[in-house]
């Protein structure tokens, strides 16, 4: 079967407007597609992927500081 392709140019603003008008289910579908596309080269940087996964796990476990907490902690150390 022959696959036909069409190449068009669309401004980023128009693309953004189109994405914002999508229903949430379509946005999630697009997110999954983009995520898969962006992680295609994950074999090239396994350390980065592992680091990101570890950071996400820490965040989900509540193991993080807000920016305000960090600033307060830093201020206390300098006294």
The main pleated sheet reads as: none
Helical fraction equals: 55-70%
Q: How much β-strand is present in the residues? A: under 5%
Q: How many domains? A: 1
Structural class: mainly alpha
End-to-end C-alpha gap: 72 Å
Number of helices: 4
Averaged pLDDT = 85
Order of helices and strands: HHHH
Give the total of beta strands: 0
Report the radius of gyration as a whole number of Å. Answer: 20 Å
Report low-confidence residues grouped into runs of 5 or more. Answer: none
Describe the global form: elongated
Description of the molecule:
- By secondary structure, the protein is mainly alpha-helical.
- It is built from four helices and no strands.
- The chain has helices at residues 12-20, 24-38, 46-60, 67-77.
- The protein is elongated.
- The protein starts with 11 loop residues before the first helix and ends with a helix.
- The model has no long low-confidence stretch (mean pLDDT 85).
Tell me briefly what this model is.
With 79 residues, the chain is an all-alpha fold. The chain is built from 4 helices and no strands.
């Amino acid at each position: 079967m022959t696959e036909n392709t069409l190449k068009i140019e669309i401004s980023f603003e128009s693309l953004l407007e189109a994405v914002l008008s999508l229903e949430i289910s379509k946005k999630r579908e697009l997110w999954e597609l983009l995520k898969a596309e962006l992680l295609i080269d994950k074999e090239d940087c396994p350390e980065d992927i592992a680091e990101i996964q570890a950071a996400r796990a820490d965040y989900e476990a509540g193991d993080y500081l807000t920016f305000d907490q960090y600033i307060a902690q830093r201020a206390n150390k300098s006294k």
